[in-house]
Each structure stands twice: as structure tokens, then as C-alpha cells.
Amino acid sequence: MLRLWRISLIVLCFWFKPLYAASAIVAVANNFYGPMKALNADFSQQTEHALQLSTGSTGQLYAQIVNGAPFDLFFAADTLRPQTLIEKGLGSSSFTYAQGCLVLWSTSPGLDLVSLLTQQDFTHLAIADPKLAPYGLAAQQSLSKMALWQAVQAKLVLGNGLNPTYQFIASGNAELGFVAKSQVFKQGQYREGSVWQVPIDYYQPILQDAVILRKGQNNPVINAFINYLKTERAQAIIKSYGYQ
Amino acid sequence: MVDWLVVATTLKLAFIVTAALLVIGIPISWWLSHSQSRFKGVVEAVCTLPMVLPPTVLGFYLLVLLSPNSAFGQALDKLGIAQLPFSFAGIAVACTIHSLPFVIQPLKNAFEAIGSQPAEVAATLRASPSDTFFHVTLPLAWPGIFSASIMGFCHTLGEFGVVLMIGGNIPGKTRVMSVEIYNYVEALEYGKAHLLAGGLMLFSFASLLLMHWVNNRYRLRFS
């Protein structure tokens, strides 16, 4: 009986070992979570590897990594935090995987969002917290460029990252707000409502870097995924979400 | 330096919510402790629900319910109640719902411990029911009311998920201590985070200590 137990235990170990070895945990900034799920689905279909995804604002994920979160790879929404992680010795190399676009979005269709914004004809404008999310910083820069930053102060609601910001607008509680194009753009078209794509020179380019973290350095799944990202298939998926 | 406006907003919120909780909680828990109604179980479950639900679930449904796109949100608007999300009133309503079980439980226990005897004695002395309630039951329930206030107050001070969902992080209106602590941690400003988090912990500990001390003294005096 004991023998049988031992054998089954060993069999179980071998059974689970490949599963265990072939997984990786990837931290993804809010704006890239949607595309990342699509990429992951395609990647696991092609290679039978699977990534586990964890999402949050770039600042939140960065703080988690600095404090020992077991991520293998980090897709940030800026270049600063991956760079800092490398300087701290927590990551080995970084690369730019996408350039993000900022849009002003409302769920109501047919609106002229620019005149709405300049005439201050709304009660709430949602943006991500500029301190935590690069898209929030870009929103702040754009509003400053339009000389509206001071004017909107009393109407501003801040999300702790892009997902809460999206939620504020999608639920109709904020009439409009600044989000990443990738959140409202899918398969080559905008999903619903009114959108104004903020001119690219209104804010500093949102270059988004990914960084391989210490734990993921020798993980074959991570290497496979990075190679996969360079393929045309993967690039097409990223483009279909409105990245440049 | 820590933003004291955040501390002031949080304290204001906790005071208002505690007052609202007592006004709502006392009648409900008195009814729960005396009623033989078959709906008692349902009411009790509804009142305990906020304690077991994740705050994000509560916050999410409030966000959807109070939205100007929803029928309920439009009805509120017609009644002249301005949009609740992103306002101080909004987080006060949400926190009141979320902290309700923490007030109902001690109050209900207190009313049950009193039993029906004091009220019956008062009735034989021709006290009206309202007289009995205000001059006999409430004073006897004082340790329970005291405990309930402290529990409600401390729970609101530390409120996080619900405020995060419907607050919008607006300085002076909906930016409370727990959200600020979260932001400090994300921005890696640990010094400020420690100051706020440590302060909150010390205050809550002292309040609970006071609550137990007062209750023990009261029990010794009357037993």
C-alpha cells in the first residue's frame, strides 16, 4: 500500500513538473492588460506555454517588485521605472514594446469633446493620478498645453491607475476623461461613445518599456515570449489596439 | 510633510458616519433584539452582508447604482440630490452602509442583555413606551452604544476599498487617509506612509483599549 502511495506521488511530481517549469508571472500596466491577454492567448496556442498575468498601475507594480513580488517580466507604461529597476539590480535588460496614445473619451456618442473641454461644460473630468500613471502625467501635460490645467482643478477626479479611471467614465459618473487609446480601441476601431485623439505633441511620448526581472532571467518561457513579441503576428495584435 | 487636509477630511467623515450609524443602527438593532417577525432573519442577513462582502463589490455596485445612467441615479437627481460619486456625501453614504454591521452587532447584544424586565417594570409604573425607551432602555444600553460608536468610528477611519471605488481621490473632499497611504506606498514615499499608517494604528489601538476599559468598569459597577 505504502509502495503504491510512493509511486503515485512520484508520478504526480513528474506530471506537474513540466507544468510548473513552463509558467511565468508577468506584471502588466493597466493600459496594456487588454492587448496582453490577446497576446497571451495567441502565444499559448502557438507554444503551449502560458503566462500568468497580474495588472495594476505602473507605480503600484513597481512598488510591488521593489518589495519582492515574484514577477518574471514587467510591462511598464513608461521608460523610467524599468530603467530604475535595472539600476537597482532588480532587472537585467529592457526594451520598448509599444508607444502609447492618449485619448479623451466619453460614453455619449456624437460629442465635440474639445469644445466641451474648453467651455468647461461638464461636472467631472477623470484622469489617472499623474504621480502613479504615465498616462495621467500625459493628461496633465496635455491640459497644461491647452492652458486648461488650472481651470479643471475643481472638476478633476483621479483614478489610482487607468483601470479605475476607465471605470469612472464607463459607469457614466464622470462625463469624460483621459484614458489610453488601447482601452477604447479594439480591432482597428473605437468601441463606443466619442473619442478625441490628443495630438501627439501635446505630451511627452509615452514610450512603454518592458524589463526582464531577476527571477525571470533564466526562464525559458520568458525567452520564448520575448521572441514571440518580435513576430509579425504579435506586432499586428499590438497595433490593433491603437499603439504606434 | 503629510497633508493634514487628508486627516481632517477623514476625521470629519468618521464623525458624520458614526452619528448616522447610531441614528440608523439603534432602531434597527432594538427591533432585531425584540421582534418575533419572520423577516427578522432576512433583515439580520442584509445588515451583516456589508461585513462579509469585499468593499470593492460594495463600491462597484454603488458606482453602478448611483450613476447618472441608472434609473436610481436619475430618481435621486429628480429629488434634487446631486450626483453622489466623487462627493463627500457619496463616500459618507457608502461608509455608513459598509460600517453598519459593526454598529448593529454591539447594539443588538446590549439590547438583548437588558432583556424585557426593566421595560415591564417601567410599564407597571405607567411609563409610556417612548419614556421607557429614552429613560430606561437607552441608559442601560450605554456600554453597547459606546462600543458601537467606537467600532463604527474606527472602521470608517480605515475605510479603503469603497472610497477608492467611488471617491475619485479629490483633495479636501474624498481623499482619505487609507487612500493616501496607498498612494504614498505606490510612490515609494515610505516616511509619509509610516507617519499616517502608524498614527492610524496607534489611534485605533488606543480607542479599542479605552472601549474595553470603560466596558469592564461599567460591568464591575453593575454586577
From TrEMBL, chain A:
In terms of SUPFAM superfamilies, this protein maps to: Periplasmic binding protein-like II
Keyword Signal assigned: yes
Q: Which domain of life is it from?
A: Bacteria
Q: Sorted alphabetically, which keywords does the UniProt record give?
A: Metal-binding, Signal
Q: State whether keyword Flavoprotein applies.
A: no
Return the Pfam families for the record.
SBP_bac_11 (PF13531)
Give the family, as the similarity comment puts it: Belongs to the bacterial solute-binding protein ModA family.
Q: Which NCBIfam families match?
A: modA
**What is the designated name of this protein?**
Molybdate ABC transporter substrate-binding protein
Q: Which organism is it from?
A: Agarivorans gilvus
| Gene name of this polypeptide | modB
TrEMBL record, chain B:
Q: Which SUPFAM superfamilies match?
A: MetI-like
Q: Which UniProt keywords apply?
A: Cell inner membrane, Cell membrane, Membrane, Molybdenum, Transmembrane, Transmembrane helix, Transport
Taxonomy, superkingdom: Bacteria
Q: Which InterPro entries match?
A: MetI-like, MetI-like_sf, ModB_ABC
Membrane topology field: Multi-pass membrane protein
> Principal localization?
membrane
Cellular compartment(s): Cell inner membrane; Cell membrane
User: Signal peptide position in this chain?
Assistant: none
ABC transmembrane type-1 domain: which residues?
7-211
The transmembrane segments are 13-33, 45-66, 86-104, 195-214
Its function, per the record, reads: Part of the binding-protein-dependent transport system for molybdenum; probably responsible for the translocation of the substrate across the membrane.
Q: Which family does it belong to?
A: Belongs to the binding-protein-dependent transport system permease family. CysTW subfamily.
Q: What is this protein called?
A: Molybdenum transport system permease
Q: Which organism is it from?
A: Agarivorans gilvus
Lineage of the source organism? Bacteria, Pseudomonadati, Pseudomonadota, Gammaproteobacteria, Alteromonadales
